[in-house]
DNA sequence: CAGTGGTCTAGACCACACC
DNA sequence: GTGTGGTCTAGACCACTGT
């Protein structure tokens, strides 16, 4: 029923993760169709050569990803995939890229400025402290789709506009070892101003999606604050929510 | 350092949950300020009289809620609370209510209709099958804030308009034993139509936030499909995202 | 070095669903 | 009953951090 799996017990990758990765691949590749009842975790653990707690941990990760449901007395069942992935801790650049589109970026500004009171509060730095301001125009399929304004602590920025046009801000931060861990977002809407209409190639007064996001690393330090506007006629946010 | 906790080992509530609930209460009440280093999980477990795996499980739940961060070799540290709650599996009614506002609801329609092809696909029923359509106007602080259109399988609806104006759709479903487990949402924006402007007491052409949501129970069955519009000048969605 | 959290194991008892 | 997942325990080894 299940393709064999060879575990590498000397790998730094935890066993439970190796197991769940394997099962996830098996499920998403369609080798086990939705509705199928899994072999019990006990037998599965024996077959793979891991203990029951380890097996359970792997299973729990599949539950968290919405790939299976478990019911006491019944078993573990593969569900039809319903989860939409986006609006995670990824950037618009990543979203478009993995969506098959070809995003391009134009850096409109990349400069150091002195933070005013409001901005300093957002970034949790001292008022007046210099921060970096980045303004970018993101396009997909040849049309502008979003104007993105980001503010970052000066220490995190050591790239130039050219690099930024190729890689996406989040990818660059990650490559520099920044571990983004959490973000809070506020999504709203408003009408486009005249300049926004021109920039995004939209009719005057058309609706824009707005998003403000503050991103933190795993110490709780602010990594970035962004204020973005999207052409609502061509972009939406998709999310999945799971009960706790 | 920690207030004492008496565990009820005969309670159906799992020990790990009793522990994590207690610790969460201690943290959110401010008895342990942000930045504090916790006692080690071993000593904490001994003190509370639970095994280390149980203690770890309780701790992990605090991590999942973004209340603490754990670092190997260092310890467990309380972080400043950053998580915003809403946009979970709750309804606008619940959101407003817990936000201290006093929401009111006006039921504009509550009727059984025959589903067309598109709607049947959304609800995963046979085309032509009757479904229930609910249209409501939600107000807060005396002003309209959202027009909400929902479609549900006929079997789930046994309430009347009056009940619906008092309780909120999600609360009613929950009270009837429906276990909502997952939802997928698409958030967008567009300009208000003439009738929407009138209904929501907004200027013509103003921006609306739109949200389409499909909710599933834990079997993966569709519970509800909703298409809502919000007056963007008075409502936003707030979310927290955590790196898996 | 000592202390922390991260991983893994072996075994036990329980609640629940189905036969 | 039998088999499932849910909970809990006791103990072990490891990787990492600070001194």
UniProtKB/TrEMBL annotation, chains A, B:
Pfam families: GntR, UTRA. GO terms for molecular function: DNA binding; DNA-binding transcription factor activity. InterPro entries: Bact_HTH_transcr_reg, Chorismate_lyase_/UTRA_dom_sf, HTH_MarR-typ, Tscrpt_reg_HTH_GntR, UTRA, WH-like_DNA-bd_sf, WH_DNA-bd_sf. Residues 13-81 form the HTH gntR-type domain. Keywords: DNA-binding, Transcription, Transcription regulation. GO terms for biological process: negative regulation of DNA-templated transcription. This is GntR family transcriptional regulator. It comes from Nocardioides bruguierae. The lineage of its organism: Bacteria, Bacillati, Actinomycetota, Actinomycetes, Propionibacteriales.
């Amino acid at each position: 029923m299940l393709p064999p799996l060879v575990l590498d017990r000397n790998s730094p990758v935890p066993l439970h993760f190796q197991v769940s990765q394997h099962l996830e691949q098996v499920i998403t590749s369609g080798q086990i169709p939705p509705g199928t009842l899994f072999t019990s975790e006990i037998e599965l653990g024996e077959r793979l050569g891991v203990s029951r707690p380890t097996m359970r941990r792997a299973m729990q990760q599949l539950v968290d990803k919405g790939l299976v449901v478990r019911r006491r007395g019944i078993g573990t069942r593969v569900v039809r995939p319903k989860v939409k992935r986006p609006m995670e801790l990824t950037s618009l650049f990543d979203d478009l890229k993995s969506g098959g589109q070809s995003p391009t970026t134009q850096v409109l500004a990349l400069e150091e400025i002195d933070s005013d009171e409001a901005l300093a509060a957002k970034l949790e730095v001292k008022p007046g402290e210099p921060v970096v301001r980045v303004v970018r125009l993101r396009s997909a399929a040849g049309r502008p789709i979003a104007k993105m304004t980001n503010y970052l602590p000066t220490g995190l920025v050591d790239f130039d506009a050219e690099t930024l046009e190729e890689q996406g801000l989040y990818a660059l931060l990650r490559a520099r070892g920044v571990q983004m861990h959490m973000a809070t977002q506020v999504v709203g809407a408003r009408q486009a101003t005249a300049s926004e209409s021109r920039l995004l190639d939209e009719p005057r007064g058309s609706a824009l999606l707005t998003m403000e996001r503050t991103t933190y690393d795993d110490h709780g330090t602010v990594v970035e604050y962004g204020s973005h506007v999207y052409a609502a006629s061509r972009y939406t946010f998709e999310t999945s929510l799971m009960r706790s």
